Structures are given as structure tokens and as C-alpha cells.
Amino acid sequence: MGKKLYVGNLAYSVRDNDLEQAFGEFGAIVSAKVMMERDTGRSKGFGFVEMGSDAEALAAIEAMNGHSLQGRALTVNEAVRWKLVPPAPAVVAATAAVVAAATAVVVAAVTAAAAVAAAV
């Protein structure tokens, strides 16, 4: 179990300190952050809370998932770090074949254009 929690379905008026207050009763809060739109400064409707321990995080999930905060039922679960998955070898090979074929077509076109230019 991780200590970082995803908190979704937040009202747009919820701010970092609101998350700290709501989750603080379940243990120490390491950080609380509502994700904001870069251009508008408006909340994206979700955030993250990092608890002091795994036990505190589990208690917060059990108590806060489905709990109402500013009129919205929260979705609370363990935050999952996404990892990039490299493309399959077959995709890499197919891409290389397409690039090689396109290169051959361009070389042939340039060669033909050069031959026409030289004939004129």
C-alpha cells in the first residue's frame, strides 16, 4: 500500500487546505495538492494527498471514499504511478520498414528530378 492517495470528483471550489483539513483527521499529511489548469487557474477536479504512513492512508481511503466534500461524493484510492511502456519490437521493425521505403521513394524522386534537370 502506498501513502499517496488520488482524490477525485472534487468540487471546483476545493483547494489544498480543504484537502488537508478533510484528510488530517486520519493522520499526518505530508502533502495535499489540488491539480489546477495551467491556463485558467481553475481546478481540474482531482488532487493528491500524501499521508504519513500506510496505515493512515488505508484509514483515509476507507473513511473518505464516497464521503461528501462540498456537496460531491469523493473517489479516493491509492495513487498509481504511470509508467511508459516501450513499443513492441514488431512495431519498431514495421516503423523502420516504412521509413526505409519512404526514403527510397524520396531518393528515386530526387534522382529522377536531377536527371530531368540535366537533360534540359
As a whole number of angstroms, the C-alpha radius of gyration is 27 Å
Percent helix, as a range, is 40-55%
Shape: elongated
Strand content: 25-35%
Overall residue-averaged pLDDT value = 92
What's the tally of helices?
3
Write the layout of secondary structure elements.
Layout: E1 4-8, H1 16-24, E2 29-36, E3 43-51, H2 54-64, E4 68-69, E5 72-73, E6 75-78, H3 89-119
Antiparallel strand pairs: 1-3, 1-6, 2-3, 4-5
What does this 3D model show about the protein?
Strand 4 (68-69) and strand 5 form a beta hairpin. The model has no long low-confidence stretch (mean pLDDT 92). The chain starts with a strand and ends with a helix. By secondary structure, the chain is of the alpha+beta class. The protein has a four-stranded antiparallel beta sheet, with helices on one face. It has helices spanning 16-24, 54-64, 89-119, and strands at residues 4-8, 29-36, 43-51, 68-69, 72-73, 75-78.
Can I get a quick summary?
With 120 residues, the protein is α+β, with helices and mostly antiparallel strands. It has three helices and six strands; from the N terminus they run βαββαβββα.
